[in-house]
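Most newcomers find our protein records easier to grasp once they have seen one. There is nothing in a record beyond a sequence line and a structure line. Getting from the letters to the tokens is the skill we practise here. An example says more than a description, so a record of this kind follows:
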Amino acid sequence: MLRVVHVASGREWRGGQRQVWLLARELARTGSVEQIVVTGAGSELARRLADARIPVHGARWSAGLDPRVLPPIVSESRSNHTVLHAHDAHALTLAGIGARLTGTPFIATRRVDFPLRRRGLWGRADRVVAISRAVADLLVADGIAAERVTVVPSGISLEETRATPRLGIRERLTLPPGSLIAANVGALVPHKDHATLLHAAAALRESLPAVHWIIAGEGPLRGAIERLRFELGLDGRVHLLGHIPDPARLIADADVYVMSSSQEGLGTSVLDAMALGIPVASTTAGGLPEMLSDGSGLLVRPGDPEGLADAVRRVVSDSTLRTALISRATIGVQRFTARRMAEDVVSVYRSCASFP
């Protein structure tokens, strides 16, 4: 049987780590491969994998390129019919070295639509899995051979997502009766462009005073976002929750999900909103139109706070539009399941070599 050694740094719990967990869980359910995940010992990813009874080789992984991770990768890769799968940039280097030492086929997943600084090990991978066509196009433009790039969109569990209980954010924040929630989930980093989100909130402050903007996520730009919130007079209207364990619970509470990114590989929080029946107002960054351009959401160009504000206004004010967006999203999200993702990834594994 084909054996897969996943390598994922797992030092934080974000969308990429969630995708590793969902993929490994689906592969275990199908029984199509034998697998083990090399990741940081004690990480949230390791804990969730263990809870799902996925074999884990916990490594002491404190720095991005921690050399202590290489021996576990090499030891797990020495079996016959094995393929290495690196799931993030830190894992890429370590798994790539491990592949060269053991002669193991090597696959890497690219989750962001940033240009490559250099091809490096991306160019040496037997296959590169791109989570959207936008990511794939950038890889090819940066010199990765097109025949080595395969698009496998991220996926979610529709059944589990739809069963997500609400967070109860109105009660937690003691918001006034009749408050409307515009939710956003994402790390507080430059490409998520929370500045555009805050300027959109400022544009609607007078015309839609019932809208409260709730941001879940943590990151290095928190201080800058807090300062901008104060400068725009939005302290009572924009609420920063920090990291929350299950952000889908916030999305379930929302009247509209807002994606302000200037760059985005795909954006699985948008898939959560689509599955939960929450209409989406989003930029056209990266792979976002691949989920939403069929009428599943309202799209505006990146860096356009007035356009984003208008999209939010239309969603919360026009019940006919809301119904249409939700209906289209309910159909569209069925293309982005974890099961389909796992099936497609197995096909990529098998394309690397002749496995029984």
Q: What stands out?
A: The chain has two domains: 3-155+337-351, 159-335. The chain has a mean pLDDT of 95. The two ends are 6 Å apart (CA to CA).
